[in-house]
Structure formats: structure tokens, C-alpha cells
Amino acid sequence: MSREDKDDEKAAEAEAREIERYGIDERTLTPIGLTTPSGRFVPEVVVNVVRFTWLGAWIALFAWGLTGPALVVMFAWIAANGAYEKHRKQLRRERRRQIQAHITARGGLPAGGGTDAVGPAGVPAALASAPPAPGAAPSAAAEQPVAVPPSLSASPAERALTRTLRRVEASERFERRDAVLVGELADVLFPLLAKVSEPGSDPRVRHDVETIATEHLPASVDAFLALPAEHVRTSRNSSGRTPLEELRTQLDLLLTGCEQLQEAVLRSDVARQQEQSRFLEQKFRPSGLDL
Fold first, then answer.
1. Where are the domains of the chain?
2. How far from each other are the two terminal CA atoms of the chain, in whole angstroms?
3. Which tens digits make up the pLDDT trace of 96-112?
4. Dist. CA 183–CA 123, nearest whole Å
5. How far apart are CA 126 and CA 110, in angstroms?
6. Which sign, positive or negative, has the C-alpha torsion 212, 171, 245, 12?
7. CB within 8 A of 31, min separation 6: which ones?
8. pTM recorded for the entire structure
């Protein structure tokens, strides 16, 4: 099993725990699978059967010496498999937003009550909640807690990210799903900002992470808020998207970028651990000459 498959399995297990903990009706969540052109939904278990059967088909064709047909089937499988994985990732992300919306609607309380309330960013609600900007009118988005870091000695990038989150919280423009998406960005960004500030971190990765927090995300939020409220859902730009759709596209791209940077940090940590193992082996492993 690849590391990507293991990560996906862990994410699915964490999702199942949240569904059970908060008493979420899974029928209200986006199902994972494919919808055919005729409108029929095909669940993922059936899609996987087709994928693996298809995979076995082109392997068998190669084994039988039918190289030409095997190449056609193989490249078709690669294209279809890549498209499905991209589609599946979008469905997973949408389910995540829906789960966070359910948790927010419950006030972060698990099914049956409890005192261990948490906000959508995975931090205690007492830490996640931030006061609205002075004079800001209450809004539906204001019910969405933001992932404010608990540290009193926050870095400039963390402070910039917190200011952006508070702007989203205090604004009436952001629908719940968009506020949840910004919260997902914060879930990734705050730990990343702390990680890249450690000694020995890659300066390029640190620059990219801090730039998202201090420039890219605030620019997307500011550009959206600068538009007249009556235009954000009706007017369309040259690409055919409304300002609200454009914002969601930008937030999705930023989240994808954060996930890629998260992977880069993980790879760096793995490489550092391997280097330490090699160093210790060279220093302490007994040599055959010592026998």
C-alpha cells in the first residue's frame, strides 16, 4: 500500500470517527462515487471493481503478447484513473466541508452532549472563537469559529492569518461553506507556520507558506469584499464565473498549494530522519575489523 493510500485510509477513519461522535446522518453527506451521464449513481466500491478489472485486463494483454491493444487499454486506464482520483478528491473535500458545517451547527458538541467542544479547526472552542471586529454587524458567518492560534507570541504571518480569519468571521458576504473552507486553510496553515519556523527548515518552503498567509489569502479575501454585494452572485467575468465562484476557485487552489507544501515538509522530515540513521550507523555500528 502506497503512502498516499495509507493517508487516504487514515483520513477516511478520522471522518468515520467524526460522523459517529457528532451523530451525523451520513445520508446528508456527498457520497463517494461516480454519476453516469444517465444520472445513475455508481458507488465507489463498484467503481473500484471496474478499475481493478480494467487494470488486470491490460496486464493480461501484455502477458499474452498483444502489445498494441495493451498500450491502448493501459493509457486509457491511466487517463480514466487520474480523472477519477481528481474527482474523488473533490468529493472528499466537499464531504469535509459538510461535516464541519454539521459540527458548527452543533456548536462543536459531540452527540449526547459533553464539555469537550471543539471548533472546526480542531482546537478547543474557547481558543477557536475570536471576538468580532469592533462595530461589526452580526452575521451568519460570525457563527463560524475561526482557528486563532493560542500562542501569545504569534509570528507576523500568524497574526496576518488571524486578521484575515476575523475579517471573514465579521463579514456578511461569506456563506457557511466558504467560511468552513477558509477554516480548513487555517487548519493546515497554522501548524505549517509553526513547523517552518523551526531551525533547519527549508527557506523556500517557509517563504511559500508565509506568502500564502500574508499575501495570497488576504488578497483573495480583500478582492472579494471590495466588490458590491449585489454583484458577487450574479455578475460574471470573462471566464464565465461569478465573483463568489472565483473566490471558491482561489480558495481551492490555495488549499491545494498548502497540501503540497505540507507534503514537502513531510518529505524533508523523512529525509532528515534517514540522514540521522546513516550518521548513527557510521558512528556506532561495529566494524567487521573489530571482530
1. 3-105, 125-283
2. 40
3. 777 777 666 665 556 65
4. 11
5. 15
6. positive
7. 41, 43, 91
8. 0.49
